[in-house]
Structures are given as structure tokens and as C-alpha cells.
Design a protein that fits this description.
- The chain is of the alpha/beta class.
- It folds into two domains: about 5-75, Arc Repressor Mutant, subunit A, CATH 1.10.10; about 100-280, Glucose-6-phosphate isomerase like protein, domain 1 (Rossmann fold).
- Helices cover about 60% and strands about 10% of the residues.
- A five-stranded parallel sheet has the order 2-1-3-4-5, sandwiched between helices.
- Helix 9 links the parallel strand 1 (about 135) and strand 2.
- Helix 9 (about 140-155) runs parallel beside helix 13 (about 240-260) and helix 13 crosses helix 14 (about 265-275).
- It starts with 5 loop residues before the first helix and ends in a 5-residue tail after the last helix.
- The mean pLDDT is about 90.
Length: about 280
């Protein structure tokens, strides 16, 4: 079966698109490589349409959604060997790969620190301290970050929860109360399930914290407090190792701030949790 390029797909279906979709199509064709670095909200705002219109455009082309569209569009631009990490070459030796990966992670951490909104970080920490409970929402790599956060906050006495199953996440978000916090993690900022959990939290009066990448996204637009992390200059930023590293660093920062604001209580909780788990260790 011959695989049709994304660019050819757009040209081939142009006459079948609505006027709004044609507007998006023409913008994409005129700015093809630049568009690959946009999230869905950035593309929508640059074209002057809604996020939903972008999704409809992608589906009209035969793709599942915006991410599926970007994956296929990238095939027209990037060689196969560059999809994982454009800084790597196929024949890089082990030492070179180590240097490039570590340098990338350090650079992303430094960029995040340089642009960090300290006021927002402290506001998020205060929300967590005052919460009856905190529930972490995410999928894929973001879910792993949520699990790490739940573990660390539990150690300092913060009642925290995380659920892997999508339906369980939706159920948990629908039961949040006004003194609870929904901590929504999505590097792309456009995960449907996370966004819906955030909306459920708002409907119940709960507060929301969003941990997303730089740029306006559906999730960042809906968060009460938004924490931004920088990312590698790659098309599929959410798949990079440095993405998770900087998210984990942000979680560690919040845990430390919360712990030191209530140091005696946090210290006591750490001692209790250590004692409770000590029997499982030699």
C-alpha cells in the first residue's frame, strides 16, 4: 500500500474542506515546518480559528486528531532517524549520545528556571498545603510524573491520590470538593482526558493546578494556577527524556516548599512513613 504524504493529503482533499478548514489548510501549507512546532492552541490562534476547528480539519484529512496529524506531517520534513531526537545522528557513538542527552536535559532545566514564575509556584504550594486532598491527573509519561508526585507528597503527610485508569480518573475528578486540588499534568497541554478532569474539578468548586509546557494550551487556559516547563526544540517534545526530568524537578520543588512551610509536621510525617515501610527493607 502506497503511503500518501500529509502534504499531498491536504492538496488532494482541499475541495472537500469547509471554508474554515481551507483557511487552516492554506496556513499549514504556507508555514509547514513552523506549524510542526505549534501546539493545537498556537495553531488555532495563528490561523484565527478555534481549537475545535483544528481538530475537525485533522479529522477531515483522515487523521485521529492533531497529534496524529503532526506525526504524519513530520514524515514529510524530518528524516526517520531524526524523529526521536533531532540532535542525535544515527552513527553517534555512546559517549556522544551521553553528552548530547545530558546537555539537552541541563539546557531545559536552565531554561525552565530562567523563566519560572516564582509567584505561581508559591501559590501552587499554598493551594496544596491547604487542600483536603490532592489528586494527580495525567496519561503516558505525565501519569508517571503524577505517580512520583503522589509518592513524595504522601511522604510529607499530604493526602494525595493518582489513578491509572481513565474512567477512574473521571470518577475521581467528579467527586472532588471545594477544598480539594486537581493537579493536571500534560506536557502538550491538550490531553482530552486531563482537560475533562480539570473541567469536572471546576464544576465541583475544586482548585486546579496545571503543569504544562510553554505556550497557550487548552489546559493552561483553564488552570487556576499554571506552572510552565521549557522543552527541547523537537517536534515530539512530550516523548523526550528531558521533558520528564524537568517535570520531576518542578514536583521536587513544590514538595520542598510545602515541606519547609510546615517543617515540623512534614518531618513527623517523614518519620512515620519511613517507620511504616522499614519492615520491607533489609
Amino acid at each position: 500500500m502506497i503511503e500518501v504524504s500529509c502534504m499531498d493529503m491536504i492538496h488532494g482533499k482541499m475541495n472537500l474542506l469547509t471554508n474554515t478548514e481551507k483557511k487552516i489548510a492554506n496556513y499549514v501549507l504556507d508555514n509547514y515546518e513552523t506549524v510542526l512546532n505549534y501546539n493545537i492552541t498556537e495553531l488555532a490562534e495563528n490561523v484565527g480559528v478555534s481549537d475545535a476547528s483544528v481538530v475537525r480539519f485533522c479529522k477531515s484529512l483522515g487523521y485521529k486528531g492533531y497529534q496524529d496529524f503532526k506525526i504524519n506531517a513530520a514524515k514529510d520534513v524530518l528524516p526517520k532517524g531524526k524523529h526521536f531526537n533531532p540532535s542525535l545522528e544515527q552513527y553517534d557513538d555512546t559517549k556522544t549520545i551521553c553528552e548530547k542527552i545530558f546537555s539537552s536535559a541541563i539546557a531545559v532545566l536552565n531554561r525552565t528556571l530562567a523563566s519560572m514564575d516564582v509567584v505561581a509556584v508559591e501559590e501552587a504550594a499554598d493551594m496544596i498545603r491547604a487542600a483536603g486532598k490532592i489528586v494527580f491527573f495525567g496519561s503516558g509519561g505525565s501519569l508517571l510524573v503524577g505517580k512520583d508526585a503522589q509518592h513524595k507528597f504522601m511522604k510529607i503527610g499530604i493526602r494525595s491520590y493518582v489513578y491509572e485508569d481513565v474512567d477512574m480518573q473521571m470518577m475521581a475528578s467528579s467527586l472532588l470538593e471545594p477544598n480539594d486540588v486537581a493537579f493536571c499534568i500534560s506536557h502538550s497541554g491538550s490531553n482530552y482526558n486531563v482537560l475533562n478532569c480539570m473541567k469536572n474539578a471546576h464544576e465541583n468548586g475544586a482548585s486546579t493546578i496545571a503543569l504544562v509546557s510553554q505556550g497557550r494550551t487548552p489546559i493552561s487556559k483553564n488552570g487556576d494556577v499554571v506552572l510552565y516547563t521549557a522543552s527541547e526544540e523537537t517536534i515530539f517534545r512530550s516523548e523526550s527524556a528531558s521533558t520528564r526530568i524537568v517535570q520531576l524537578a518542578m514536583i521536587d520543588t513544590l514538595v520542598a516548599i510545602v515541606a519547609f512551610k510546615d517543617y515540623n509536621e512534614s518531618y513527623a510525617a517523614i518519620q512515620k512513613t519511613r517507620k511504616a515501610t522499614s519492615e520491607n527493607k533489609f
